[in-house]
Design goal:
The structure is a homodimer of 236-residue chains.
Chain A (H helix, E strand, L loop, with lengths): L11 H33 L9 H25 L3 H31 L2 H4 L5 H24 L2 H9 L1 H21 L4 H33 L8 H10 L1
């Protein structure tokens, strides 16, 4: 495991700053995970009503702006190079992915609050599988980021395939149902958007994994396949 | 108009580098616009078959990686501050938006190549309006970026509202048709994804406008309303 070593700088202040931005990213990640959890509750259990998500979403947006501003300050004052510079750049990208995950969660919340989607009972099982995969992947991606562990990051990125499988399967069910009964069209369309948002969250979690590899290995793996990404991680 | 002034640095080399990354962003933007144009052709004219998009998409991804790498080099070697630093940061964000626009265009191309969508004739008019609005907005956003013109950027960002209107209208037509006839379900679902991708491209074009305001005004306006954004631009 290639974990991030601390205390390498003459300036302890600088070490503290780098540690600080990483911690803030993890705080933001935790908030995004909570938002997602709150958003999916009414989808998986029709007895629950969705809680208020707006203040939480605003806090996430605010954290994104704060962390970005802090990154700019570090770039201007500390002029980091090599791995430190890559960390600051990766943080900027990771928080953008987290913010987009927050947006998708908000969209899921809005859709799962609409009565049509509350009739999602026939899809409970498929939805639950997809939600669990997405939540699991996001959690592990944040963990790989916390530990700056490139090997784990590649394994986590690979999970996107099983999310795509669940996504495709659920979409096919929804389309079949719409063809069976016009009455199911509106409900199914809402669930299609929810399903799509979940799949997009998986993509953003995979991006976070790519940012980890970039920091640790110095290699931009964004447009490589998972196998090529794994080769890059094992290369050095 | 607050255009970007050149020749402010003792090092002409540095000026050239900053000019160089801006130009590369515009080259990338031009390629993304072309990709989008190629993607929508089969949608708006059923006699046309889609051209090969893959090589173009790969070139766009490659440009994103190259520009990002060049930005890192500038950060490490030149240690820019103030507006120069903001320009480098904004370029990093803008190319990420351009890459995502490229992805949406690719998705549109894939969908519009499927025979179901070729039967999109009843929606020609609505689709054409939406496509024209999206293409117009993207083009003007890139122009505002080229000239680093914050006032224009705000005006362009405001166009996202009319795109959302066209998007909502088209969605309602598609859902009504699916309810009318089960035979139309598959075709309409494909067109829903296309419509959604076009709407997302509008969002990314709006992001590019926000990056322009950030460079020129030093203010992060990402989570503000358009009116608040305009206030920020007029403040100084």
């Amino acid at each position: 495991m290639d974990s991030y070593r601390l205390g390498r700088h003459i300036s302890h202040q600088f070490d503290n700053e780098l540690e600080n931005i990483r911690n803030r990213v993890l705080v933001m990640g935790g908030m995004v995970e909570e938002l997602l959890q709150m958003a999916v509750v009414p989808l998986l259990d029709s007895n629950e009503s969705p809680e208020k998500l707006v203040p939480r979403d605003e806090k996430i947006n605010q954290l994104e702006v704060e962390i970005d501003e802090f990154c700019s300050q570090i770039l201007a004052r500390r002029q980091p190079t090599a791995r430190d510079l890559r960390l600051v750049i990766a943080v900027g990208k990771a928080i953008s992915d987290l913010e987009r995950i927050g947006d998708e969660a908000k969209m899921i919340a809005r859709k799962s609050d609409e009565s049509k989607v509350k009739e999602s009972r026939p899809y409970y099982h498929q939805l639950r599988v997809l939600v669990q995969r997405v939540q699991g992947m996001l959690n592990q991606a944040l963990d790989a980021f916390a530990r700056m562990d490139a090997e784990t990051a590649v394994e986590v990125a690979r999970q996107d395939e099983s999310i795509d499988d669940s996504y495709g399967e659920l979409l096919r069910s929804l389309i079949n149902d719409m063809e069976d009964s016009p009455k199911k069209v509106r409900r199914s369309v809402e669930l299609m958007w929810v399903t799509r948002s979940l799949e997009r969250i998986g993509d953003h979690a995979a991006n976070i994994c790519e940012h980890v590899v970039y920091v640790v290995k110095g290699k931009d793996v964004r447009h490589l396949s998972i196998d090529e990404m794994e080769d890059e991680v094992n290369k050095y």
